TrEMBL record:
It comes from Paracoccus liaowanqingii. The lineage of its organism: Bacteria, Pseudomonadati, Pseudomonadota, Alphaproteobacteria, Rhodobacterales. Keywords: DNA-binding, Transcription, Transcription regulation. SUPFAM superfamilies: Dimeric alpha+beta barrel, Winged helix' DNA-binding domain. PANTHER family: DNA-BINDING TRANSCRIPTIONAL ACTIVATOR DECR, LEUCINE-RESPONSIVE REGULATORY PROTEIN. This is Lrp/AsnC family transcriptional regulator.
């Protein structure tokens, strides 16, 4: 592995160069981050110390942000997933700060994205049911002014993954 780029290089930084072993390690960790170092080393065909060093460098470079357990929402009774499209007529810093704080303070917002185009934001909101979504909605609009909200109920999750496609090395 070539020396990774510093994670604090900021926007526009050059992506970290990955070799085949790095890609295999990342692929394994995306599938199951609870694998032991011995298991990873065995599966990539390397010894434990070099694999540990690669993982450490990938963490230091910001390629591996964190390791988490992915929970099943239905097993927790969170059976309703809403995608919430938000348009706002407010674009000043104060409004944005209040809006971001409101989103970060609500655990039912599991994803939030600022968009280009006609819609300003899209949220993924995981709740028990429609009543729980309505409580979330009423609470949000009481806290921040929103021009237009459209909520779309997901009828079926067809694909969900946290695994990113790992780019091949430039040739």
């Amino acid at each position: 592995m070539q020396e990774p780029i510093s994670p604090d290089a900021g926007p526009g930084q050059t992506p970290v160069r990955l070799d085949e072993v790095d890609r295999k390690i990342l692929s394994l960790l995306q599938q199951d981050a609870s694998l032991s170092l011995d298991q990873i080393a065995d599966r990539v065909g390397a010894s434990k110390t070099p694999v540990w060093n690669r993982i450490r460098k990938l963490r230091e470079a910001g390629v591996i942000r964190r390791q988490v357990a992915i929970l099943d929402p239905e097993a927790l009774g969170l059976e309703a997933c809403f995608f919430v499209l938000i348009r706002t007529s407010e674009h000043d810093k104060d409004w944005a700060a209040r809006f971001l704080r409101a989103l970060r303070d609500r655990p039912e917002v599991v994803e939030a994205h600022r968009l280009a185009g006609d819609i300003d934001y899209i949220l993924k909101v995981q709740v028990r049911n429609a009543r729980a979504y309505d409580r979330f909605y009423q609470s949000l609009i009481a806290e921040v002014k929103i021009h237009n909200v459209t909520a779309l109920l997901s009828m079926e999750e067809i694909k969900a993954t946290s695994a990113l496609p790992i780019p091949e090395a430039a040739r």
